[in-house]
Amino acid sequence: MLGSSSNCDVQLDEAGVAARHAEIRLIDGKSLLLKDLGSEAGTLRNGERVVETLLASGDEIRIGTCRWMLQAPGLRPGRVLTADVLRKSTRRWPRVLVWTLLFTSAAAVAVLKWKPEWLNIF
User: Fold this and answer.
1) Beta 60-63 vs 52-55: how paired, if at all?
2) Residues forming beta bridges with residue 35, ordered by sequence position
3) Of 38, 5, 35, which is closest to residue 23 (Cα–Cα)?
4) Nearest residue to 72 (alpha-carbon basis) of 30, 11, 22
5) 69 forms bridges with which residues in the sheet?
6) H or E segment to which residue 61 belongs
7) How do residues 52-107 score in pLDDT, each as one tens digit?
8) Around 91, how many Cα atoms within 13 Å sit in the side-chain half-sphere?
9) Rounded-to-integer distance, Cα 62 and Cα 51, Å
């Protein structure tokens, strides 16, 4: 059982996490079932909101800001969530911002140089 209640197996003390948010059950001694227990914020498996789903090695489970990567014994998942992976995804935005500013500045200089009459529109 996962949730904000003190009687949950995994207690998540953060806003948006229900008292009894989700559960993971062993089915037939070999499969894991993730079930959202009607939480408002939802439970995500690999980035998609789920109500009930079977889990596989490499699946990412997210509740609020908490994230877990399921790794079956003896198996290495196809993708592993590490600090390097997280860092790479956040580096993209500064580059986009810099290129956007450079492009906008170049466009402004071009307008001033070749079409200054366009400034009279404003």
Assistant:
1) unpaired
2) 23, 52
3) 35
4) 30
5) 60
6) strand 60-63
7) 999 988 899 999 989 998 876 665 555 565 566 555 555 566 778 888 999 899 98
8) 6
9) 13
